[in-house]
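Please complete every field before forwarding. Incomplete forms are returned to the sender.

SECTION A: IDENTIFIERS
Entry label: holo-269
Bound molecule: NAP
Molecule representation: SMILES string

SECTION B: INPUTS
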Amino acid sequence: MAKLIFGGLEENVVTREEFPLDKAQQAMKGETIAVIGYGVQGPGQALNLRDNGFNVIVGQRRDSKTWDKAVADGWVPGETLFPIEEAARRGTIIQYLLSDAAQIALWPTIKPHLTAGKALYFSHGFGITYKERTGIVPPKDIDVILIAPKGSGTSLRRMFLAGKGLNSSYAIFQDATGRAHERVVALGIGVGSGYLFETTFKKEVYSDLTGERGTLMGAIQGIFAAQYDHEGAPLASWAPFRASSRLSTTCCAAAAIAPLKHSTKPWRN
Ligand SMILES: NC(=O)c1ccc[n+]([C@@H]2O[C@H](COP(=O)([O-])OP(=O)(O)OC[C@H]3O[C@@H](n4cnc5c(N)ncnc54)[C@H](OP(=O)(O)O)[C@@H]3O)[C@@H](O)[C@H]2O)c1
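SECTION C: PREDICTED COMPLEX
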């Protein structure tokens, strides 16, 4: 495993050179990867895994346009596309990629299918880190792992199609089989990661909550929005930021985010 120094701290990093695709495919031999949820991360990860030669099925509720989207992407009902519970039953690896709220709601449906030796996979540390509140308490005899791509599922797919990888964090919460590390790294490579940075579920959720949801979506957007409300026009609200070159980076980020204030679209699309 490579070691890189970031800000004086040593980090464990897995690269595609040391864990190539054929090694990942070998590690996943005999596994059925059930991607549960076909929102933003679901399609990016499922399609990349499929194109990388893994055995993938998708679990999606049927009475939804998202089911039709999955069909349009080539998933075949009854063969590679199933209702959520059926996919969870068939999968040996359950990639839990419903929205974070739906993960809580659907937990009683998923849990009975987490039988000994399976792996439960997340792309966000939220459900497990706050398990006393979310109720997502996994059985002791399964692996619990995380791959969190550092971008949207759309970027993950776009970069994959361009022959590039998006960096991801990886973490192990529970290693019941002794194979959790091999499984998580193989899946990280399979979904199209570039570098894989080791983390924990807690660190992933704290960095996400403070960095993305707090600073990016909250603080910076809020500062810019407050100025916008005060001045009433984008150009005027830009002016105080422009005066300071040290603020230029902040300003660019804020300018990019500002239209979201009046948008109903979720940020993570
Ligand atoms: N968005 C990102 O780029 C991103 C980046 C990094 C990590 N993550 C993490 O990845 C995970 C998935 O996030 P996401 O943004 O891809 O999720 P999302 O787009 O919000 O997830 C939507 C999926 O959840 C299903 N769903 C929602 N409510 C449901 C319900 N009550 N019953 C059954 N299905 C329901 C949707 O089905 P319908 O379409 O039928 O509603 C759809 O399949 C989360 O843990 C998130 O924190 C996301």
